[in-house]
């Protein structure tokens, strides 16, 4: 399939790029996309939560009442979880929430989202551009020209471009990533995905394996 290449004024340049059907034209796998998003969000969790358990409470270890004759349950320590200020039973401990997902599944998830985005006309291809200096105003003018000023937009660059990245950094609804940083969560979270012309070759090469 071919798609027209636009310039930063939002007009067609007369050029077209060919999109690989094995990347942009597959039947989406919703479950694989779900697993990829789940893994991405799990990996973002710090996992630094911690509650003190019985052995970590700083209290006296004396026996707080006699064993028998009180008419109540026996109690050996004020650290017991049944008392106020005691330790917590099976409290949370620091751990990693990340889990493994096969490379083939991760590629399938990306291809599924790209195929669905193309089907929904939520993909644009823009000719490569840069700014002489970081200016948010210039990036906003690009968004307006593409009709994305009121939408969440994800721009995918072929290689790192500091000026373009810094120009977009203050905008809540716009995000700029390199082709190597492209992930399923960002694509789903964006109303439109804008690929710079130079990013398509590496993405298609990587996902068509």
TrEMBL record:
List UniProt keywords, sorted A-Z: Ribonucleoprotein, Ribosomal protein, RNA-binding, rRNA-binding
- SUPFAM superfamilies per the UniProt record, alphabetical: Ribosomal protein L4
Q: One Gene Ontology cellular component annotation?
A: ribosome
Q: Which domain of life is it from?
A: Bacteria
Q: Which Pfam families match?
A: Ribosomal_L4
**Region (Disordered) location:** 57-78
Check the record and name the Gene3D superfamilies matching this protein.
3.40.1370.10
Function comment:
Forms part of the polypeptide exit tunnel. One of the primary rRNA binding proteins, this protein initially binds near the 5'-end of the 23S rRNA. It is important during the early stages of 50S assembly. It makes multiple contacts with different domains of the 23S rRNA in the assembled 50S subunit and ribosome.
The Swiss-Prot or TrEMBL record describes its family as follows: Belongs to the universal ribosomal protein uL4 family.
Subunit structure of this chain's protein: Part of the 50S ribosomal subunit.
Name of the protein in question: Large ribosomal subunit protein uL4
């Amino acid at each position: 399939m071919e798609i027209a290449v636009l310039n930063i004024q939002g007009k067609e340049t007369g050029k077209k790029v060919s999109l690989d059907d094995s990347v942009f034209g597959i039947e989406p796998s919703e479950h694989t996309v779900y697993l990829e998003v789940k893994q991405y969000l799990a990996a973002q969790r710090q996992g630094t939560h911690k509650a003190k358990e019985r052995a970590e409470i700083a209290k006296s270890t004396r026996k707080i009442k006699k064993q028998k004759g009180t008419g109540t349950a026996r109690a050996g320590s004020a650290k017991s979880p049944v008392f106020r200020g005691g330790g917590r039973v099976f409290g949370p401990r620091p751990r990693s929430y990340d889990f493994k997902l096969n490379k083939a599944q991760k590629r399938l998830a990306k291809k599924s989202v790209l195929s669905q985005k193309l089907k929904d006309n939520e993909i644009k291809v823009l000719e490569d551009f840069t700014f002489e200096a970081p200016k948010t105003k210039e990036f906003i003018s690009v968004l307006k020209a593409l009709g994305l000023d009121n939408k969440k937009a994800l721009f995918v660059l072929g290689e790192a471009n500091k000026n373009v990245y810094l120009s977009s950094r203050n905008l809540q609804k716009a995000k700029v990533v390199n082709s190597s940083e492209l992930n399923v969560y960002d694509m789903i979270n964006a109303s439109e995905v804008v690929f710079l012309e130079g990013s398509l070759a590496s993405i298609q090469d990587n996902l068509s394996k």
